[in-house]
């Protein structure tokens, strides 16, 4: 599991999200410097990503993409003026070396993607990414 620590204001289309606080990376598949997961072996993988976004009247689409350019999942935020938290879960087959990442697919208006936040008791995790192999 990897977490976006710094909030992003008004992201541009094509920006790859880099979840920089890596909590678990047992198979060493996630690269926090690039923000992508590289399959260490062939197999079926489960991925999940969650974003907390305040579109402030605008709109935002976040894609989960595969190294062949295909969109394998997405989140869509439309016209809200308050924070919305959404998640996407997918199962996909990857060959060794294939990559998966999240990036901004569409944006308009004022957008705020919420990073982590220090609360009175603990750190609040708002936007995060995880993936793991579930079988061959």
Automatic annotation (TrEMBL):
Lineage: Eukaryota, Metazoa, Spiralia, Lophotrochozoa, Mollusca
Gene3D superfamilies according to UniProt: 2.60.120.40
Domain of life where this protein originates: Eukaryota
Entry GO terms, CC: extracellular region
Protein name: C1q domain-containing protein
Native source species: Pinctada imbricata (Atlantic pearl-oyster)
Residue ranges of domain C1q in the record: 1-136
Subcellular location: Secreted
Location (main, coarse): secreted
Key words of the record: Secreted, Signal
InterPro entries referenced in this protein's UniProt entry, alphabetically: C1q_dom, Cerebellin_Synaptic_Org, Tumour_necrosis_fac-like_dom
Pfam families cross-referenced by the UniProt entry: C1q
């Amino acid at each position: 599991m990897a977490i976006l620590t710094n909030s992003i204001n008004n992201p541009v289309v094509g920006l790859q999200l880099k979840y920089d606080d890596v909590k678990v990376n047992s198979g060493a598949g996630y690269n926090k410097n690039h923000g992508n997961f590289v399959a260490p072996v062939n197999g079926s993988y489960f991925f999940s990503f969650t974003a907390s976004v305040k579109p402030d009247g605008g709109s935002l689409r976040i894609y989960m993409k595969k190294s062949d350019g295909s969109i394998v999942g997405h989140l869509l935020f439309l016209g809200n003026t308050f924070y919305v938290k959404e998640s996407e879960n997918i199962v996909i087959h990857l060959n060794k070396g294939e990559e998966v990442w999240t990036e901004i697919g569409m944006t308009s208006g004022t957008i705020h993607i919420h990073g982590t936040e220090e609360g009175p008791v603990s750190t609040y995790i708002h936007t995060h990414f995880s993936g793991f192999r579930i079988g061959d």
